[in-house]
């Protein structure tokens, strides 16, 4: 007899325009106005945009220049990450009142496995609504949620009724939900992959489902197996309450482009200092050091070196970064520099998850 796919009850909670919403929460004068957190009208990149700004095509990762062009009334706000972390901690505290299986993805989103929960409530849908209401009442911000049998579907569902809404995809609805979904909305299918799928005649989940495993592996390599399974509702990745940090980084975008390596080293010293603090905070060290360089034309380059021992000290970091910086001549002036440490000394922990099946 074929084993049944285990049924979990997963909630994906995603805060609505988190950084921008925190700024509007703290400063009532910004409410109802188009704002961008990060960047400026002359340079930099937008980190987040309010829904009022999104109506004009302002979104995260676009340049401040383009954002201002799209929305002349746009207000730029400098990010306050310590404040965002403070608010995020309050939200996560609420999560843990419902389950210990909480997997934060960032400051503004997390997965919760409520298959077995502290409230003894069998309805994941009602729990999601209660969690969202508590976030609004206790923090003052709105959140959206997706509820389903696995992390993949829950994440897609959380985007369905944004802002301040939720969507449940019940076990018997998963396959039909994915069949009707536009391929560009599949989590993990980026812009480049979407274009490639379009060229192969794959526009919806049903189109994807109609392709054989051999076909998908031929065109997408190892990802082909992932696509073949998820469109059939198969995604058994559990919610991991102790998410393993894979890398730690620090970077800085400059007000004036740098053209001299001497000036760059001065900036890199400050970045290395910030990175050392982060490494010590997480009590980790790494063997692979990567220098990130973004040029004035927005093209990006990385240079890496792997050492035979773990590093967290800024002096050692700077020695390696200096070597990477002078490895080859710069092709243009530089607008951003960053340092990251990966190949960390964190050990993968084992997780035991009891998978139960009952009414959703």
TrEMBL record:
<comment type="similarity">
    <text>Belongs to the DNA polymerase type-Y family.</text>
</comment>
<feature type="domain" description="UmuC">
    <location>
        <begin position="10"/>
        <end position="190"/>
    </location>
</feature>
<dbReference type="InterPro" id="IPR022880">
    <property type="entry name" value="DNApol_IV"/>
</dbReference>
<keyword id="KW-0239">DNA-directed DNA polymerase</keyword>
<feature type="binding site">
    <location>
        <position position="108"/>
    </location>
    <ligand>
        <name>Mg(2+)</name>
    </ligand>
</feature>
<protein>
    <recommendedName>
        <fullName>DNA polymerase IV</fullName>
        <ecNumber>2.7.7.7</ecNumber>
    </recommendedName>
</protein>
<feature type="binding site">
    <location>
        <position position="14"/>
    </location>
    <ligand>
        <name>Mg(2+)</name>
    </ligand>
</feature>
<keyword id="KW-0515">Mutator protein</keyword>
<dbReference type="GO" id="GO:0006281">
    <property type="term" value="P:DNA repair"/>
</dbReference>
<keyword id="KW-0234">DNA repair</keyword>
<dbReference type="GO" id="GO:0006261">
    <property type="term" value="P:DNA-templated DNA replication"/>
</dbReference>
<keyword id="KW-0460">Magnesium</keyword>
<feature type="active site">
    <location>
        <position position="109"/>
    </location>
</feature>
<keyword id="KW-0963">Cytoplasm</keyword>
<feature type="site" description="Substrate discrimination">
    <location>
        <position position="19"/>
    </location>
</feature>
<dbReference type="InterPro" id="IPR001126">
    <property type="entry name" value="UmuC"/>
</dbReference>
<dbReference type="GO" id="GO:0009432">
    <property type="term" value="P:SOS response"/>
</dbReference>
<dbReference type="InterPro" id="IPR050116">
    <property type="entry name" value="DNA_polymerase-Y"/>
</dbReference>
<dbReference type="Pfam" id="PF00817">
    <property type="entry name" value="IMS"/>
</dbReference>
<dbReference type="Pfam" id="PF11799">
    <property type="entry name" value="IMS_C"/>
</dbReference>
<keyword id="KW-0548">Nucleotidyltransferase</keyword>
<dbReference type="Pfam" id="PF11798">
    <property type="entry name" value="IMS_HHH"/>
</dbReference>
<dbReference type="GO" id="GO:0005829">
    <property type="term" value="C:cytosol"/>
</dbReference>
<comment type="function">
    <text>Poorly processive, error-prone DNA polymerase involved in untargeted mutagenesis. Copies undamaged DNA at stalled replication forks, which arise in vivo from mismatched or misaligned primer ends. These misaligned primers can be extended by PolIV. Exhibits no 3'-5' exonuclease (proofreading) activity. May be involved in translesional synthesis, in conjunction with the beta clamp from PolIII.</text>
</comment>
<dbReference type="GO" id="GO:0003684">
    <property type="term" value="F:damaged DNA binding"/>
</dbReference>
<dbReference type="GO" id="GO:0003887">
    <property type="term" value="F:DNA-directed DNA polymerase activity"/>
</dbReference>
<keyword id="KW-0479">Metal-binding</keyword>
<keyword id="KW-0235">DNA replication</keyword>
<dbReference type="GO" id="GO:0042276">
    <property type="term" value="P:error-prone translesion synthesis"/>
</dbReference>
<dbReference type="InterPro" id="IPR043502">
    <property type="entry name" value="DNA/RNA_pol_sf"/>
</dbReference>
<dbReference type="InterPro" id="IPR024728">
    <property type="entry name" value="PolY_HhH_motif"/>
</dbReference>
<keyword id="KW-0808">Transferase</keyword>
<dbReference type="InterPro" id="IPR036775">
    <property type="entry name" value="DNA_pol_Y-fam_lit_finger_sf"/>
</dbReference>
<dbReference type="GO" id="GO:0000287">
    <property type="term" value="F:magnesium ion binding"/>
</dbReference>
<keyword id="KW-0227">DNA damage</keyword>
<keyword id="KW-0238">DNA-binding</keyword>
<comment type="subunit">
    <text>Monomer.</text>
</comment>
<dbReference type="InterPro" id="IPR017961">
    <property type="entry name" value="DNA_pol_Y-fam_little_finger"/>
</dbReference>
<dbReference type="InterPro" id="IPR043128">
    <property type="entry name" value="Rev_trsase/Diguanyl_cyclase"/>
</dbReference>
């Amino acid at each position: 007899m074929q084993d049944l796919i285990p049924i979990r009850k997963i909630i994906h909670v995603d805060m609505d325009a988190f950084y921008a919403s925190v700024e509007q929460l703290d400063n009532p004068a910004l409410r109802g106005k188009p704002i961008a957190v990060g960047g400026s009208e002359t340079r930099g990149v937008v980190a987040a945009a309010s829904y009022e700004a999104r109506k004009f095509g302002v979104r995260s990762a676009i340049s401040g220049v383009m954002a201002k062009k799209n929305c002349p009334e746009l207000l730029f706000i400098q990010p306050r990450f310590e404040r965002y972390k403070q608010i995020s901690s309050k939200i996560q505290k609420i999560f843990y009142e419902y389950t210990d299986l909480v997997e934060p993805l960032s400051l503004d989103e997390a997965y919760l496995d409520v298959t077995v929960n502290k409230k003894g409530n069998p309805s994941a849908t009602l729990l999601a609504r209660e969690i969202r209401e508590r976030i609004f009442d206790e923090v003052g911000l709105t959140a959206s949620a997706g509820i389903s049998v696995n992390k993949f579907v829950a994440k897609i569902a959380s985007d369905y009724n944004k802002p301040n809404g939720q969507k449940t995809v019940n076990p018997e609805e998963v396959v039909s939900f994915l069949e009707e979904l536009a391929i560009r909305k599949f989590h993990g299918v980026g812009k480049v992959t979407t274009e490639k799928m379009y060229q192969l005649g794959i526009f919806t989940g049903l189109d994807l489902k109609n392709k054989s495993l051999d076909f998908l592996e031929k065109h997408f390599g190892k990802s082909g197996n992932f696509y073949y399974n998820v469109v059939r509702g198969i995604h058994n990745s559990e919610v991991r309450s102790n998410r393993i940090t894979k890398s730690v980084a620090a970077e800085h975008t400059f007000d004036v482009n740098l053209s001299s390596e001497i000036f760059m080293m001065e900036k890199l010293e400050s970045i290395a200092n910030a990175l050392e603090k982060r490494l010590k905070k997480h009590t980790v060290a790494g063997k692979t050091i990567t220098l990130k360089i973004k040029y004035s034309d927005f093209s990006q380059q990385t240079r890496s070196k792997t050492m035979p021992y773990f590093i967290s000290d800024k002096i050692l970091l700077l020695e390696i970064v200096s070597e990477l910086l002078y490895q080859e001549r710069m092709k243009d002036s530089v607008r951003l520099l960053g340092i990251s440490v990966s190949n960390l000394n964190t050990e993968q922990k084992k997780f035991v998850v009891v998978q139960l099946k009952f009414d959703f």
